[in-house]
Specification:
membrane, 6-stranded mixed β-sheet, Put_HupE_UreJ, 11 helices, transmembrane helix, 3-stranded antiparallel β-sheet, alpha+beta, Membrane protein, transmembrane, 2 domains
């Protein structure tokens, strides 16, 4: 009997796809691009700005606009070498560069403002696979009667979170490379509306899942491959969503703080667990939603650490938090929808779906999770 073309194509394509997923997971490291965060204050005729940035990325000349992982960038090798520098060596390399680089930052306060570097503090040398945060301090003289500021962030510099300090209703905004802020009132009152902040933080949450959150993507796929029943998936996703919403809020509020050195290995273990349960059980047990709820608490702490990198507007904390969480949910639903369109829609009703698709895919997910656990604990 001749096999249907769909089965033949699947048997040819599935090993290649699973191999790509395994390689992707093994080479993926903590090289995600994080935004620069700048806090600024105005005191009389002086503008002060403190940038928390990835100095090595700028020094390596990496174009950060739209970049997901520095491993993918031209100059990634130089960047990795710079990560191994001691703080004193990095300061000696970065300061001359910074004095020229800040000329690309356009600050207009009643006219162009000339910025000068007043200090640089390189972050401590830690895990070279994890970007360190350094501080660059600059200042500039401004006209005494100036009332508004516009900042033009240079192309290639990636995302900037700009935060105003020392005034009522301070401005907080996200600026992409090559973009500009709206006019910012120097005496305050420029805080964005709740709806605008809500809308601004949705893509931040979405991007943390797609494409940045490979570990979260694999966990959601682990939920998907348990079975094709909508009820099974709904129970799991609901438990996961409720749990990570709780710890995301608690972490963002600063009420719960667990070191990444603990959270990240446990997230890897959660990926491995759900995948192995798919293989050896293959059905929704009574305890699985409870276990997933527990794992969701861990993932929520991971989300909170990302949100902390962006900062939350002091006057619009909850709109930003809700917007970020909505973005995360959209990202999860996108992963599930793509998985359904790729395999569930076409093969989910086939009698061989579990043995030919769900189990092999879960095995690869388990291997990646196990590798990440070992890497994050021992390597």
């Amino acid at each position: 009997m001749r096999r249907p073309p769909s089965i033949t194509i699947l048997k040819l394509a599935l090993p290649a796809l699973l191999s790509m997923l395994l390689c992707w997971g093994v080479v993926a490291r903590a090289h995600e691009v994080t935004p620069t965060v700048a806090d600024f204050t105005v005191d009389g005729s002086e503008l002060s700005m403190v940038f928390r940035l990835n100095a090595e990325a700028f020094l390596a000349g990496i174009d950060l606009d739209g970049l997901v992982d520095t491993d993918e960038a031209e100059g990634g090798g130089v960047y990795d070498d710079l990560r191994g520098l001691e703080p004193d060596s990095l300061e000696a390399r970065f300061l001359p560069f910074a004095e020229a680089w800040i000329e690309r930052i356009g600050v207009d306060i009643g006219g162009p403002v000339t910025l000068e570097v007043t200090g640089f503090n390189a972050g401590p040398l830690g895990d070279p696979r994890v970007a360190r945060s350094s501080e660059l301090v600059v200042r500039g003289e401004i006209p005494a009667l100036a009332s508004e500021m516009v900042l033009n962030w240079p192309s290639g510099a990636g995302a900037l979170v700009l935060r105003q300090l020392g005034v009522e209703e301070p401005f907080t905004g996200l600026v992409q490379g090559g973009g500009s802020t709206p006019p910012i009132a120097l005496d305050g009152g420029g805080a964005a509306s709740g709806w605008l902040v809500f809308a601004q933080y949705i893509p931040v949450g979405f991007e943390h899942i797609v494409p940045l959150g490979l570990d979260h993507i694999l966990f959601v796929l682990g939920l998907f491959f348990l079975g094709t029943s909508a009820r099974v998936l709904l129970w799991q996703v609901s438990a996961f969503t409720l749990a990570h919403t709780v710890t995301l809020a608690l972490g963002a509020l600063g009420w719960v703080n667990v070191p990444p050195s603990i959270v990240e290995p446990l997230i890897a273990a959660s990926i491995c667990y759900v995948a192995l349960e798919n293989i050896f059980l293959g059905h929704l047990t009574r305890w699985r939603p409870v276990v997933i709820f527990g794992f969701g608490l861990l993932h929520g702490l991971g989300f909170a650490s990302v949100l902390g990198e962006f900062g939350l507007p002091r006057g619009q904390f909850f709109p930003a938090l809700i917007g970020f969480n909505v973005g995360v949910e959209f990202g999860q639903l996108t992963v599930i929808a793509l998985a359904f369109l790729a395999v569930g829609l076409w093969f989910g009703h086939k009698p061989w779906y579990r043995t030919a698709i769900a189990i092999p895919a879960s095995a690869v997910i388990a291997l990646v999770g196990a590798y990440w656990f070992v890497e994050r604990v021992f390597l």
